[in-house]
Amino acid sequence: MLPRAEHSPVEIYTLTAYSLIALFSFSVCYALSSSELDLFRIGIPGFLLRLKFAALVPEIIRSQILSSGAPQLVVLLPVPPLLFIRKWVIEFSGLQRVKQFQQEPTKRGLPKKSGNKFDHLVLGPAAGQGLSNRLQCEGTKALNKTQFSTNHRVNAVELVSVVTVFSVYNSSPDASRVTVGNTSYSKVERAMAILNVFVNFIQETMPQSDVIILTDPASDLYVNRRGVSVYPIQGEYSREKLMLQRIRSYIAFLEKKLKEHNQKDVHHYIFTDSDIAVVDDLGQIFHDYPDFHLALTFRNNKQQPLNSGCIAVRGTRDGITRATAFLRKVLEAYTSKYMSASRMLGDQLALAWVVASEPSFDVKRYTRSEPFMQDIGSGSVLFLPCAIYNWTPPEGAGQFHGMPLDVKVVHFKGSRKRLMLESWNFYTSTADISDMLCLVLSSGRTKYDF
After folding, report:
1. Where are the beta strands (DSSP E) in 302-436?
2. pTM for the full model?
3. In total, how many domains does the chain have?
């Protein structure tokens, strides 16, 4: 048997102290080296709890050594490094780590803030959780259901058409392709895919409505689908002038329909962008609000309070006449004041200017997310909240505070066309719009490659 080594009290205390320091260092490493996935799982409170425990270890070490009667010199030796580590843990590891966690959401599955765009779905926490009037999600599973209309057409005589402007642009056959699901698309093919998904949603939620596509007569656009018609209107459909041409096409279309108007039948029109998903029957607005001529969507935005992505026109002779007169004023404001923004936003700026020119109009009404009526010129205009009738993912993650349960339109504007295609693919696999909306909501502010 080997003789047992004898150690002095000072040696024992020193070894014990430095063993505890090593244990403390291990606990700090454990707190700081957790994977980002684990950090997301335990959350910031759990992370801080680990740090708090680690930071208390120096005081525990010191109290244990003091209570054991160690010489004062030995007790003081480990204290400075312990206090330094404790200070470093609290001031650097805790605060800096949490700050980094907040500033780099990509590692939690959210987009980078550097402007990077993604070529695949990127999901994160859904906005509006805990609010009683918002969609509640657990991943892509809806915990409560959106409130869809049950009466899809109150009057069989009153027809509703959804109208959009669409043009196909020539692109190089060598242009980079993108893949969504199991399908690869060229630039033209993905534009057509977006148009098809636009039609799919309308036929799913408004089966009694048809779709009218306003386009350049020179375009070779061909859509062979039931309930879809292509309506050529002469004009300039270049990318630089498309927003301006859209207003002109709306006016030309309404003027033609006014000439064809039949007093017996009422045919309403809803003009929309082609990058929207109609998730509930929009025809209800003509029944719920029987006195308007034209309907616009608004949000609380000082520079651009009105969004032109959804405009409804009552199909009576009076409604078409007054709506056309209103749009002519918008066109005049556009061409005289906002041609510098002819490619983007000019139509929205012109809309806002025409409305604000009405002396009795109160712009504070934009701050309240409630429908309201206002006479603008000779027409009665219905203002509908974008949060319901023109909901967008970035605004849903921001000022809309999630997704209202009675949402009607989801607008995939900007770099969110991929999300539109992914959403339809998801819906076809689940047949549950509420679950699909959780997918959209969880995408939040993510920007995609198209």
Report:
1. 306-313, 372-376, 379-385, 409-411
2. 0.74
3. 2
